[in-house]
């Protein structure tokens, strides 16, 4: 029996990380992510959860070592905790880590089930610690509920990393406070540049905050030291003298990380996107339903041949626009 082909693109990059959007739905309407009147996929268009599990398991067979469940808000999808348990039961010799990105609104009631599924850490999207600013960014939701969810998850033993999208004129003055808040609680923090994905009804240029300038301002107050830690994704990490918080930067606009890209993204409808910054994809749902694992493998091979060298994000130009019409919630963060 021949060996299973490992996932490698036409540029020689090994694909070891799969991000799975289990739903494009979300109970928030963050201004940098989607319009207030967002239209979501009809349920009939989604991959069934057992199909999603089969696809994820095939990725692991072919060399993926890390899976992140995301959305939308993944904890909104009925059955997602059963999916997590199934994936968490995979041979730990093949899958190094199963994790999740969430907005935290349902974390309190789901945290223990995530631990039981084998998760050791989760990422929580939290852009502000000010209730009024939280409401302004998300257009809905309760900051206190999210903070309570983070605390409840921490009590279960889950490690927490806070993801903060840095927004000029909205939360940039809070970055120091967020560092202190995370440091006090033992959470890591990653700062993220906003990306031009989907029409949100607003001009992202107004609030785009380059993180190279943020890092320079931080260095005026802190001693920052590069940290070799890698979480499997694009973040580059630093330690801050006198603090235990690990600080990450995700900089798709000011310094892209494409040369070392090891990721592909599976949307909730079964479309596989090889790059967050391009629209081309292959339909794994159609392949699986028409020809099973053999057709799925053929579709994966075709996808890898077409993976781009880099993204084509555009922001801050003379004609600011969304480079990609697809919203972030379709393929997940």
Note down, in words, how this protein is organized.
The chain is α/β, with parallel strands linked by helices and 333 residues long. Helices cover 30% and strands 18% of the residues. It has helices at residues 49-61, 80-88, 107-116, 131-138, 143-155, 175-185, 211-219, 284-305, 328-331; strands spanning 17-21, 66-70, 97-102, 121-125, 159-166, 188-193, 224-227, 236-240, 246-250, 263-266, 271-273, 281-283. Strands 7-8-9-6-5-4-3-2-1-10-11-12 form a twelve-stranded mixed β-sheet. Strand 5, helix 6 and strand 6 form a beta-alpha-beta unit. The longest helix is centred in the last third of the chain and has 22 residues, at 284-305. The chain is globular and about 55 Å long. The model is unreliable at 317-322 (pLDDT under 50).
């Amino acid at each position: 029996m021949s060996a299973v082909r490992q996932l490698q693109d036409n540029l020689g990059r090994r694909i070891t990380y799969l991000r799975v959007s289990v739903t494009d739905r979300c109970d928030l309407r963050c201004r940098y992510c989607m319009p207030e009147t967002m239209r979501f996929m009809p349920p009939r268009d989604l991959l069934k959860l057992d199909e999603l599990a089969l696809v994820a398991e095939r990725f692991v067979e072919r060399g993926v070592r890390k899976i992140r469940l995301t959305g939308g808000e993944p904890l909104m999808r009925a059955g997602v905790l059963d999916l997590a348990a199934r994936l968490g039961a995979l041979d730990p010799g093949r899958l190094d880590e199963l994790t999740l990105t969430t907005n935290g609104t349902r974390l309190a009631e789901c945290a223990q089930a995530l631990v039981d599924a084998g998760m050791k850490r989760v990422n929580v999207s939290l852009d502000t610690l000010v209730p009024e600013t939280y409401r302004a960014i998300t257009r809905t939701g309760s900051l206190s509920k999210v903070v309570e969810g983070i605390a409840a998850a921490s009590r279960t033993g889950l490690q927490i990393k806070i993801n903060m999208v840095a927004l000029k004129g909205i939360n940039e003055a809070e970055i120091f406070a967020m560092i202190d808040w995370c440091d006090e609680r033992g959470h890591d923090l990653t700062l993220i540049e906003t990306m031009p994905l989907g029409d949100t009804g607003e001009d992202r240029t107004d609030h785009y905050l380059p993180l190279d300038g943020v890092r320079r301002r931080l260095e005026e107050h802190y001693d920052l030291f590069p940290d070799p830690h890698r979480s499997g994704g694009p973040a580059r990490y630093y330690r801050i003298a006198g603090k235990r918080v690990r600080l990450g930067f995700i900089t798709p606009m000011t310094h892209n990380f494409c040369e070392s890209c090891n990721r592909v993204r599976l949307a909730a409808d079964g479309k596989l996107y090889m790059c967050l910054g391009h629209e081309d994809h292959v339909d794994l749902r159609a392949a699986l339903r028409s020809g099973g694992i053999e057709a799925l493998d053929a579709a994966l091979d075709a996808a890898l041949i077409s993976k781009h060298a880099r993204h084509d994000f555009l922001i801050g130009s003379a004609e600011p626009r969304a480079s990609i019409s697809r919203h972030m919630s379709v393929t997940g963060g």
